[in-house]
Amino acid sequence: MPKQASTGTQLQLAISDVYTKVAYVTDISGPDTDGQFFDATDLDSEYIEDGEPVGQVSPGSVTAELFYDPADATHQAIITRKLAQTKSDWKIVFPDDEEIAFEGTPKKFAPKAAKGDGIKASLEVKLSSLPTYPE
Hints:
Layout: E1 10-15, E2 18-21, E3 25-29, E4 34-38, E5 52-58, E6 61-67, H1 73-84, E7 88-93, E8 99-112, E9 120-127
């Protein structure tokens, strides 16, 4: 697979059944799915056997950094969903139009103002099911 630039990657939120680009995103991370394991080490073990899968995967989270605009409709929609704890459909769309689709609820939307910088916000979306990756 060839390497590709991240420029043009979008975080999208379904608003009224239409996927809408979240404005002013500068960074997207995740989904950070996490497999669950148990420690099977016993008194006869020669080494620690803590890599036994339990068969479950935590869906994890998607995080993003963005320039915050209180008047922007997508930022308002995220805050509304966070306060109401509403699950929504989301996508990360890459420049080649491949996408990662997921359902989740905004867990965190934290505006930040710092000297010498624009007003920003940190976003965390907690996934409610496993994401769908490109095949």
